[in-house]
Amino acid sequence: MGITNKRYSSKPETLEHIENVSKAITEICAHLVKRAEKHDASKLKAPELKYFNKYTPLLKKMEYGSEGYKKSLEELKPALDHHYRNNSHHPEHYRYGVDGMNLMDIIEMFCDWQAASKRTKNGSMLNSINVSCKRFFIDNQLRQIFINTYRDIIQKGE
Question: Whole-prediction pTM value?
Fold first, then answer.
């Protein structure tokens, strides 16, 4: 008795499955494109703009996670509080941090870390992943997914 049933073809169901997966991926991509278009728009107007005008040049001279960096974040608190309330790609947006985020938030957060790592002294995405995962209590499994994604996709394109 073989596993081939001559009267049944799985091809139509497989093609339907492929189409359904394609639709879901396309929906996710469209959602991410919309998020990319409005990413950090709140930084371009009051009350955030005046703070970021002052602190962005200072933060560029600091290493991410350093004591000076942390002190500047404290001074940026009024702008950051507003920013976090209005941007769901930050764990601070949610009462329970990363646990409140959805996959779109996580992807945007990852891309934000990558872009931000280019804006600090000795910027490194791998360092950003390590520091941020400790800061936001992200487990090792997701941390490793971030590292794998960076190495397999982002780093190859740089």
Answer: 0.89
